[in-house]
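Box 3.1. Reading complex inputs
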Amino acid sequence: MKKYKILEDVAIADIAIEAYGKGLNELFENCAFAVFEESADINKIKEKEKKSVKLSAKSADDLLFDFLSEILFLKDTYSMIFKKASVKISKKGNNYSLNAELVGEPINRKKHELRNDIKAITLHMFKLEKTKEGYKALFVVDV
Amino acid sequence: MRPEPERPKEINKISDFIWEIPTSHKKGMLVPARIYASKGLIEQMDNGVFDQVTNVACLPGIQKYSFCMPDGHWGYGFPIGGVAAFDPEEKGIISPGGIGFDINCGMRLVTTNLTFDQVKPKLRELTDTLFKLVPAGVGCKGFVDANKSQFIEIIENGSKWCVENGYGWKEDIERTEGYGKIDWADHTKVSDKAMQRGMNQLGTLGSGNHYLETQLVKAENIFDKETAKAFGIHTSNQIVVMVHCGSRGFGHQIGTDYLRKFEPVMKEHGIEIRDRELTCAPFNSKEGQDYYKAMACAANMAFSNRQVILHRIREGFEKTFNKDAEKMEMHMVYDVAHNIAKLEEHEIDGKKKKLVVHRKGSTRAFPPGHPELNPIFKKTGQPVIIGGSMETGSYLLVGTEEAMKQTWGSTAHGSGRTMSRARAKREVRGDKLQKDMEKRGIYVKSVSMAGLAEEAGLAYKNVDEVIDTVHKAGISKRVVKLLPIANVKG
């Protein structure tokens, strides 16, 4: 299964991403992967440091928005870029909880091939839906 | 995926430069939408603009028209180039999607008394020095090592803090919109997360379309000699410097925080919106006021960011040319926001009203004699700085009375994209573009080659046509066109 694709000619100054996953965990991981790849060439990032993320929300799409926003928060706060995310989501009643681990390293302008400094995850066209194959999400990032 | 929005069936021509979409176009439109564009630009305008400008027309308390400027394009929430005013007395709202995550993204222009002949032999050295002094790119850290209590002072006092702490000249404040300090900033309305995220980023450019550019004035590009002179541009071959950046992660986090906070508030007030990114709150509600005060903190951070960057630019010039910045007459022309909302007094049908004017990718363009302007601009009107693409050129304009009458004292902010980033990257290679530009006399130093390709001139509208439109529509007047000779990019 393809992890994600960029939707061309949508929100032209920004980047529109459609990501896929068999389950919610994989969908969230692939959404994160798209954010990582848009930020830098992940092949040049080493797995040196880990950051853990714990979140909860009242819906899966709010949880996805918060999770992706958290990645941007960690990027700026710790000057880090990431290459991998592992996500575990559980649902109790109407509450979704997420435990995730992000792996990457501190930014080095000389070593890393940096791309876009994503400013924020927007709610424009934001969508998380169930499909025949699993799940699909659409989100636009502000660059 | 949602199909691409449709173009409205009815786009009525009001004048050669104004096009109107009537309220009958979409259910819920409270006012018509007006797009400023030449015939060529309206035909080029992407369909997202029509959808978004008419979505804005549905927001509570909107007055007169929902506007889009000629550099407009498909954004999130408001279109980029969107201008709208809301009356708090008529349940008018404030929306982070009408300001942008990059709160007080804006432009700063600085003059020098150096000529092209003096700068040319050292242009590469100068640009490399500026590239080192002003960090750019993903997650870059600034050189100002502020602790939390200092950072609070910065976000509440803006440029004033910078100048008091040695990062600039007193006169810089005189030449910054609102004197570089928004009074209603209140740090208690800002999350710890936003503080943590933004604290180490003062003095950084960021990436995307942000840049630091060395530019050239040519005699044939001075359109209004008297105003140009009043703004400090007087010689052919004079060198100036332009900066485009904003409030960095600090502002981005404030936008993100309040976007989520506003969702339940809308339910409470029964506000319905057509795009989740138009999430808003009544301006007079507690939440609306909280955001207004937090937004002001981000705006102060952005003024400070550009102020600290100016300090570094002066250092870079001093180092390269071995002369004092004062001797090189490195005076600011102006610093102006183009992503902001402000409570301003405007006239509607002969009555004066306080309105929350949102400008998202639009520059304030106040006329001569406006009470909010520093007396030094009393005769001329407010300088308006428009950043074009890095290949084609930028403009200095001046505000007008017509802008007050027509567009809540607002005009364009840039040249406006016409091509997506992905498409631009397929059409252009960053390293090739860099070499081609160098052959044409524009030296570019960029953190990212992919980022460079995304900002290629072909991805933008014709800036001359955009400026021609605002000039002929009267909402600002052309003063000088500035040509790029070197560019530092994130």
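In summary: The CA atoms of residues 263 and 279 of chain B lie 6 Å apart.
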